[in-house]
Amino acid sequence: MPLEGTSGPALTAPLSERAPQGASALQIAAALGSMALELDAALAPIIGPRGVMALWQRSLHLTSAAHPWLSAGQPGGLSPLDTALLATAVAQRDDHDATVAVNALLQAFHELLASLIGLSLTERLLRTVWAPSLALPSSGLPAQDPTP
């Protein structure tokens, strides 16, 4: 479910550059683990660790509606996200189910963040995590969201 008015590989298949097509559930779990750490590193200085945790928890909650097994990896409270627990839950699924669920989880995370800070800023903050090959050096000029 890509964001309205957006397109491109970064939004439609967040795992496409991290795990090749046909990757095993174990590879998908490893990719999710590394992306979770990179997302935390990119966002925690801006929205704080609790903000990142809240986004993960909400994303897991939303994605669990279609993939109930993901709720097994959902920690309680605002403690640090146990990416090992989540990765274990992903690694135990079949390859297709793991890919679909993790892409849905990452898409939900992206959509939630974009709804809070805007699509332009979300894209800039997550570009190196979502699609490292698409990350371009900054021109030094700040991008701005279009005026409503």
Describe this structure in words.
The chain has 148 residues and is an all-alpha fold. The protein has one domain. The chain is 59% helix and 0% strand. It has helices at 9-12, 25-64, 83-91, 95-117, 119-130. α2 (25-64) crosses α3 (83-91). It is globular, with a radius of gyration of 15 Å. The chain starts with 8 loop residues before the first helix and ends in an 18-residue tail after the last helix. Mean pLDDT is 77; it is low at 1-12 and 135-142.
SSE blueprint:
Layout: H1 9-12, H2 25-64, H3 83-91, H4 95-117, H5 119-130
Summarize the biggest pleated sheet: none
Q: Please count the beta strands (DSSP E, at least 2 residues each).
A: 0
Radius of gyration equals 15 Å
What oligomeric arrangement do these chains adopt? single chain
Given helix and strand content, the structural type is: mainly alpha
Query: Could you state the order of secondary-structure elements as H and E?
Result: HHHHH
